[in-house]
Amino acid sequence: MEAEQQEHQAKLKRRQAQRDAGKKSRGKDPEPPQEGPRDSDQVSLTDEDSRIMPVSGGGFEQSYNAQAAVDTETMLVIVPHVSQSPNDKREVLPVLDELSALPQSLGQVKAMLADTGYCSEANVPHCHAHQIEPILAMSRDSHHLPVLERFAPDAPAPESEDPVLKMAHRLKTKAGRALYGLRKQTVEPVFGIIKHVMGWRQMSMRGLDKAQGEWALVTLAWNVKRLHVLRAA
Length: 233
What we know:
This protein is an alpha+beta fold. It has helices at about 1-20, 90-100, 125-130, 145-150, 165-170, 175-185, 185-195, 210-230, and strands at about 50-55, 60-65, 65-70, 75-85, 110-115, 135. The protein has a two-stranded antiparallel ribbon with strand order 1-2.
């Protein structure tokens, strides 16, 4: 409920900023989140903790949302996380909290790289509060920039203290693009190998606690497999 309220406040803030800039907002103001079950809510009689979620390629399935924070240098899973929310925007803060709870001897996380599904006005200051630079894609940009644009000098930084505007500028710089580019070659191969090589594609256990334990074991198996590769190298 707290995450829904934060998302609602962020939407209201964006609409007010549009009005202050003299732009007309489309549609009605978003309704505040309501407590308790809704008429449209459904419960699985097989696993009451699971939720109906959209899947890639279209359609819906009774699912959990499995997340993984992956180190860009080693490709080891640092934080495995399972939630009941299909909205990835709500998964940033729980992962940040789990990262903060790790032993300091493991090192300090410098930046969080995530696609546009994780970007929200609330998540940017959340990252700064944990002393982590947010590199959260704000839109689906082209992967192949024109040559002149690719090698053009960086635009000057905005004269603003707005952390979202600063992140937007950072994403457009050469260094920011190179940093964000590590995301695709880091986390996506991990999920791909777990699914297609290790053969794990769905939860075998029922209930959120058991699903979290199963995902922790799966990512542990990946880490052991990856450590053998790193040791050989």
